[in-house]
Amino acid sequence: MTSPTRVLVLNSGSSSVKYQLLDMRDSSRLAVGLVERIGEQTSRLKHTCLTTGDTREHTDPIAGHDAALKAVAEELARDGLGLESPELAAIGHRVVHGGMFFTEPTVIDDEVLAEIERLIPVAPLHNPANLTGIRTAQALRPDLPQVAVFDTAFHTTMPESAARYAIDPKIADRHRIRRYGFHGTSHAYVSRETARLLGKDPADVNVIVLHLGNGASASAVEGGRCVDTSMGLTPLEGLVMGTRSGDLDPAVIFHLARVGGMSMDEIDTLLNKSSGLFGLCGDNDMREIRRRIDEGDEAAALAFDIYIHRIKKYIGAYYAVLGRVDAVAFTAGVGENAAPVREAAIAGLEGLGLAVDGELNAVRGDEPRLISPESARVAVAVVPTDEELEIATQTYTLVGKSS
Fold first, then answer.
1. Across-strand partners of 146?
2. What's the pTM?
3. First to last CA, the chain
4. Dist CA 118 CA 195 (whole Å)
5. In the chain, count of helices (H) and strands (E)?
6. Catalytic residues
7. What is the mean pLDDT of each successive set of 10 residues along the chain, which is 403 residues long?
């Protein structure tokens, strides 16, 4: 009997579950889907079987993650791809925060669950939902290996000089305060695919990865290992994002509390949900912002300029950290699709060997591609991310090693 080759990837959010079923013989997708607005009367499940092309959508209320995953299992079963299939090798779970304890994908047991739970104070929005998804999946298939793939794991190779904040180490250690970084599966995948695009071994390539979505982060990857990243203890630090402020003088928080009379919860909401592009101009959709700029909207133009200025700063900073840069790679929703963002972010950096070819940059596509002129000293690339494939690959590799 041949070994099972399918991996179900689950990404459990606070009110949603994204999932993909992949066959790791050729990394093909068999089914994809999304359950959203869990716990509301307007719950929605959209499921697509890619082997048949059929799409089904349900809008019945889904009370919790347990009901959501059972509904997912039922949809998969309708296509002959159910969780009971002997071809299912494992379930891979995206877990946002692994702290310093988890540096690689890990088969989940009681000790792993306990540690993920202990990390809830540094990831209060994400780790509880991730845990719920894991426990529900375990109940559905208790005999199947369940693997946690951590957003933070790729960044655990950072040196202490990059990971440590300049505060009392005893206090920092007591409260687990350090730079962890996020979007790690994306940065790992994109840095590796960028090296492949250049026809080189990842160990020989230095890449600055710009993951630009509603959440955004940058990383400096030296020879396949992360040496610095823009997000920190939480995903709030770093680049300007859709609704997050990114880098901010910490004293702004004290000022808002003391002078503005705002509570900690109000400040938290302001910086995480009402700042960034949305806070600056009332929109966090880059397409809408560009439309408004074309119509002469000054607030949208300023928001765009602030957004680009921060990206440029990180490109320059990470160029200095790496010393030698072989490529700058744009990825995620904005990075892959917004040509004006890529053009503006690289404009003026010719002295660093960076340039964008206007015609190449304007081309849209789903494949990794170079958008820099052949004469450029440093390659500029667009590399579509595939976090689900990365999670499935890490899960399948780990299960194969342990079987």
1. 91
2. 0.92
3. 15
4. 36
5. 15, 14
6. 151
7. 87 86 95 90 92 91 88 92 91 91 93 91 83 90 94 96 98 94 95 97 98 96 98 95 96 98 96 96 95 97 98 98 98 96 97 97 94 96 95 93 56
Nearest in space to 43 (alpha carbons), one of 34, 31, 32, 30:
34
CA distance 376 to 386: 27
DSSP annotation string for 247-290: S--THHHHHHHHTS---HHHHHHHHHHS-HHHHHHS---HHHHH
Q: Sign of the C-alpha dihedral, residues 99, 105, 106, 107?
A: positive
Structure tokens at 338: 């917004």
Backbone region of residue 317 per phi and psi (left: phi > 0; alpha: psi in -120 to 50; beta: other values): alpha
Instruction: Note whether 175 and 196 are within 8 A (CB).
Output: no
Q: In angstroms, rounded to a whole number, what is the distance separating the alpha carbons of residues 150 and 391? A: 9
Nearest alpha-carbon partner for 8 in 54, 59, 65, 77: 77
Amino acid at 367: E
Tokens read off for 202: 């990842």
Q: Are 246 and 254 in contact (CB under 8 A)?
A: no
> Between the CA atoms of 129, 9, 154 and 200, what dihedral angle is there, to the nearest 10 degrees?
-160
